[in-house]
């Protein structure tokens, strides 16, 4: 009985050992499978992927109303201190070049001063010539007296007259020079009474009545009687809100469309954003 029981126990032990070994192998296999799965997941997580970047332009359009104006406008007001406006040389709508004569003033006071200066210079020139003739005549007398053997009692008084005339002639010459300078100064003032265009453009407005209006005569500025608009590129002037002002800067480009025809477009650049409210 004992040997059979021993054999049965041995067989049981073998089955248990085999089961344990099989279980260990299964657990090991599962662990290996799990570890490999983790490694694959980590490899996928560590892998760097590249995507194509798409470039897109974002537009933030601001709609602002404005007025188209000439690049430069010069307005002329009658200046009573310069005299009365006369000789208007241009017509409304006429194209003018830089330096074109527009109009001039008639200043009676300067005209009288110029006439007086011219008269004084003529009189000084006449005196100078008369004094020169006397000097020449007396010098001839002195020569004639010396040639005839006359003494100093004859020639000395004559030479004294020559000296006096030459001194007077120098004074007259200074008066002539003074008159010349005065005429040059008055001539400058007269040239300033002629007004010229400062740029190439078009006579946009001409009101001859405003040039001679009573307000001008009384010294008030009145209204401009002549305006010249330049041919420079046009300007667009608009009004911004406080929010728009913070979003718009100098040198930004913009597009202009006309209300009458929104198909027509012009491009430009912002030249100034005023800091002062309107």
Characteristics of this structure?
single chain, 278 residues, alpha+beta, four-stranded antiparallel beta sheet, three-stranded antiparallel beta sheet, 6 helices, 11 strands, elongated, disordered N terminus
**How many DSSP-defined strands?**
11
Helix % is 40-55%
- Largest sheet, order of strands side by side? 2-8-7-4
Mean pLDDT: 79
Tell me the radius of gyration: 54 Å
Range of strand content: 15-25%
Largest sheet: 4 strands, antiparallel
Low-confidence stretches: 1-6
Query: How far do the termini sit from each other?
Result: 124 Å
Q: What is the oligomeric state here?
A: single chain
The number of helices is 6
Order of helices and strands: HEEEEEHHEEHHEEHEE
Which helices and strands appear, and what pairs or packs with what?
Elements: H1 2-46, E1 66-69, E2 73-76, E3 84-86, E4 95-96, E5 101-106, H2 108-147, H3 152-192, E6 194-196, E7 201-206, H4 208-211, H5 214-217, E8 226-230, E9 235-238, H6 242-247, E10 253-257, E11 265-269
Antiparallel strand pairs: 1-9, 2-8, 3-5, 4-7, 5-6, 7-8, 10-11
InterPro entries: Beta-barrel_YknX, BSH_YknX-like, HH_YknX-like, UPF0194_transport
Domain YknX-like alpha-helical hairpin: 108-192
Domain YknX-like beta-barrel: 234-278
Architecture overview:
With about 280 residues, the protein is of the alpha+beta class. The chain has a domain at about 55-70 and about 235-278. It has 6 helices and 11 strands. The protein has helices spanning about 1-45, 110-145, 150-190, 210, 215, 240-245, and strands at about 65-70, 75, 85, 95, 100-105, 195, 200-205, 225-230, 235-240, 255, 265-270. The protein has a 4-stranded antiparallel beta sheet with strand order 2-8-7-4, with no helix packed on it. A 3-stranded antiparallel beta sheet has the order 3-5-6. A two-stranded antiparallel sheet has the order 1-9. A hairpin with a 7-residue loop joins strand 10 and strand 11. Helix 2 runs antiparallel to helix 3. It is elongated. The model is unreliable at about 1-5 (pLDDT under 50).
């Amino acid at each position: 009985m004992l040997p059979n029981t021993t054999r049965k126990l041995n067989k049981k032990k073998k089955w248990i050992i085999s089961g344990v070994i099989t279980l260990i192998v299964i657990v090991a296999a599962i662990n290996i499978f799990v570890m490999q799965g983790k490694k694959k997941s980590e490899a996928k997580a560590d892998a760097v992927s590249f995507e194509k970047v798409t470039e897109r332009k974002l537009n933030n359009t601001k709609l602002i109303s404005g007025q188209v104006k000439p690049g430069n406008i010069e307005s002329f007001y009658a200046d009573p201190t310069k005299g009365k406006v006369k000789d208007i040389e241009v017509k409304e709508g006429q194209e003018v070049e830089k330096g074109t004569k527009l109009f001039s003033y008639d200043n009676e006071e300067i005209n009288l001063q110029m006439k007086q200066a011219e008269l004084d210079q003529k009189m000084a020139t006449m005196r100078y010539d008369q004094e020169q003739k006397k000097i020449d005549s007396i010098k001839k007398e002195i020569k004639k007296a010396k040639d005839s053997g006359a003494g100093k009692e004859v020639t000395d008084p004559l030479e004294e007259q020559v000296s006096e005339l030459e001194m007077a002639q120098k004074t007259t010459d200074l008066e002539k020079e003074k008159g010349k300078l005065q005429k040059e100064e008055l001539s400058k003032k007269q040239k300033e009474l002629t007004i010229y265009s400062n740029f190439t453009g078009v006579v946009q407005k001409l009101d001859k009545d405003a040039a001679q209006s009573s307000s001008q005569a009384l010294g008030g500025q009145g209204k401009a009687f002549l305006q010249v608009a330049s041919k420079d590129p046009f300007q667009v002037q608009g009004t911004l809100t406080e929010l728009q002002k913070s979003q718009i800067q100098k040198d930004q480009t913009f597009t202009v469309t006309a209300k009458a025809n929104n198909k027509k477009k012009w491009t430009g650049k912002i030249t100034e954003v005023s800091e002062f409210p309107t």
